[in-house]
User: What shape does this take?
Amino acid sequence: MTMIPPGSTIGIIGGGQLGRMSALAAAELGYKVHIYTPEIDSPASHVASKVTVASYTDEKALKAFARSVDVVTFEFENIPVEGIKFLADIVPVRPNPRTLYIAQHRKREKEFAASAGIQTAPFTIVKNAKELEAAFRSLGVVRGILKTLEMGYDGKGQRRVNQGDDYADIWADTGFEEAIFEGFIEFEKEISVIVARGLDGNVSTFPPAENTHVNGILDTSKVPSRIAERTSVAARAAAHKLADALDIVGLLAVEFFVLKEGSVVFNEMAPRPHNSGHWTMDGCVTSQFDQFIRAVCGLPLGSVRRHSDVVMKNLIGHDYNNWQDILAKDPHAKVHLYGKREVREGRKMGHVNYVSNLTLD
Ligand SMILES: Nc1ncnc2c1ncn2[C@@H]1O[C@H](COP(=O)(O)OP(=O)(O)O)[C@@H](O)[C@H]1O
Ligand SMILES: [Mg+2]
Assistant: This one.
């Protein structure tokens, strides 16, 4: 287990906005970044010192990439496990391959949380309409959600189902061969916690953010979140426990449902920076991206003290076209744009951190 000193090269798998903002944070600490992505002209490629454009299954390209960097990490965790193991044979991979294996599959992820003693929605695997019908009875629920086991994001690959619906029709419509079916949680709020775990096992959790979604896509994250202190403590403790159980080095973002009485239910986790942590860029002493780079390189973790209130608003699709207005109207609006050429519906183009209650000179 080695510390990776400034001047070294960090290899990042994935070329999206998370990779871009991670690369910017890496540069602030004197690191170079080599991005590996199948995408041409990716957001991260604009700010990286080296880019490999190749498929996640191209062993030759993966090998050359691994040999050119001092450590490998991920901004996108859905690369085939064989590819991850392939990299790990050559260079330190942080977070570890097992963490990616668990986090990239909804059943493994929920079973892992449950085995760590953290409450999840009731769930079961279904392979056809008949099993879907039976699942309502076995879980004892009247509403639920069918979700793809892998590669789901931004509410994609999900279908809500009520008891008594035409299961055959719904099943055929989803095109799933196998899916996870979860009981619907009547939550009061959604929150997320980002936890960082260093090479020395030190752990630091950012304050929970309160999240709202529109059309399955994160719309806003707010801090402080309006939750009871014990809810915050429970969420941070659960995230800490998961990070330890995974023996993760890096970040783990954990999404929770908050129930009326204040307890938390695990929804999903991602072993990387997370959209719901973008507020930290302008609200904390150390941003999630700074912390990510520190953890992955084996540096001491920074302070996660919050110095401002923040409302993070995603700029999705055509929201992007308002960038000039946003800049002109509010000098406390910190605008972050991802350099994506093409505006597409549902595409994350940037975000704005509306900062308030800050200490001004
Ligand atoms: N079991 C559930 N009960 C109630 N709402 C849910 C449940 N699962 C997902 N949702 C809603 O759908 C959103 C997206 O689901 P999630 O599992 O987080 O998938 P994604 O990977 O697309 O973010 C959640 O943030 C929540 O609003
Ligand atoms: Mg989610």
Remarks:
- The chain has eleven helices and 17 strands.
- The two ends are 43 Å apart (CA to CA).
